[in-house]
Amino acid sequence: MRRALFDQLAAHLDKKEFTVLTGARQTGKSTLLRQLEIHCKEQSLPSVFLNLENRDVLSILNERPLNLLNYLPDVKQRVIAFIDEIQYLDDPSNFLKLLYDEHVQQVKIVATGSSAFYIDDHFRDSLGGRKRVFQLLTCSFSEYLQLNGKDQLLQELKRISSNEKARTSQLDYLRQEWESYMLYGGYPAIITEPDKKEKIEKLREIRDSFVKRDILESGVQNETAFFHLFRLLAEQSGSLINVHELSVTLRIKTDTVNNYLHILQKCFHLALVKPYFRNLRKELTKMPKGFLLDTGLRNCLLNNFQQLQIRMDRGELWENMYFRNLMDRYGLDPIYYWRTSDGNEVDFVLPEKENPFAVEAKYDKAQIKSGKYKKFVETYPEIPLHYAWLHPFDEDFFRRLNL
């Protein structure tokens, strides 16, 4: 299976800028890199693949970055060098800068890098104009169906999503898959594991081993406080992030909380949504809302894999899931929320799109009271307000996802 990001990466192969593919661990970056290598062979594009977990290769490149040129095939055209796990280099930013500045006509680097590389300020400062960063999230629902071998359901999903009158006899199967996706998330290894108990064990492995590697590589000293913060954010997903309150609860400094929030974002576990106001000063002084980027990891942090109907947090889980759907479609930057000091609130506002819109997400349609949003509608008549609910479930559910 090819991820949706594959086409964007393939289209960037002939660009002058280097390509950096980053994202949370275990999202499939190395697999995607191998697929791009195969694509190059099919297109007769000269390429070489280097995995820096190979200590011999790593040592040679650390000794002298220009040693990379010795691995290139002897051809006259530009060679694409795929470098997996580039963060293992002693100075990956300098490595990329040197090769771009002196040999950009000879080699195009396509590299995967973990948060330890991407979080480095030197990466941003020294590579301005020399690279484009692509972020690989865990799988979307369409990718989930494809990876799970549910091709027929995927075709039904596409059909009913694009036709407002379409109906399907497969609706109950789509609902079951959607609920499983909400509970266990979109990590590829979790999707392809058929046993529910094993899914949970593998999520715990991601939580305990791979997130711990993020912690170690990011220089976190108080591992216990970091995990406590992570669990609090999971429990409060969709809520305002009050740094002072979190510092009091965890008994750590506010600077430490801010640092941990920064790390969680750069490790692609957390996204912060900004408030929307026409007054920029107000916008910059208001607190963000936090969402986890994978609901399976969220449920693992809370140790809660109960079915949706009996969950006390089903509303929060649904809002987090809807946010993730918006991020899959539009990225993080265009997404805001709206809230006033007297308690008026709309979950999501996308005001900068050509066709702006806002969304209020409620688990149950019966919870929607349109009068509660009168102030938003009056204040921003140019931004249509939509409602998104999970129950009752029908074909329109998927059409509501495709605003």
Structure notes:
- With 403 residues, this protein is α/β, with parallel strands linked by helices.
- The protein is built from 19 helices and 11 strands.
- The protein is globular, with a radius of gyration of 23 Å.
- The two termini are 26 Å apart.
- The model has no long low-confidence stretch (mean pLDDT 93).
Runs in which pLDDT lies below 50 for 5 or more consecutive residues are: none
Cα-atom radius of gyration:
23 Å
Strand content: 15-25%
Fraction of helical residues: 40-55%
Record keyword descriptors for this entry.
2 domains; AAA+_ATPase; five-stranded parallel β-sheet; DUF4143; alpha/beta; Rossmann fold; 19 helices; about 400 residues; globular; about 15% strand
What is this entry, summarized?
This protein has 403 residues and is α/β, with parallel strands linked by helices.
Outline the secondary-structure elements.
Elements: H1 6-11, E1 18-23, H2 29-42, E2 47-51, H3 55-63, E3 79-84, H4 92-103, E4 107-113, H5 115-118, H6 121-126, E5 131-136, H7 141-147, H8 151-162, H9 171-184, H10 188-191, H11 196-217, H12 223-235, H13 243-250, H14 254-266, E6 270-275, H15 280-285, E7 289-292, H16 295-302, H17 314-330, E8 336-339, E9 345-350, E10 357-364, H18 374-379, E11 385-391, H19 396-401
Parallel strand pairs: 1-4, 1-5, 2-3, 3-4, 6-8, 10-11
Antiparallel strand pairs: 6-7, 8-9, 9-10
Helix pairs in contact: 9-16, 11-16, 12-16, 13-14
Organism: Puia dinghuensis
Domain AAA+ ATPase: 15-138
Pfam families: AAA_14, DUF4143
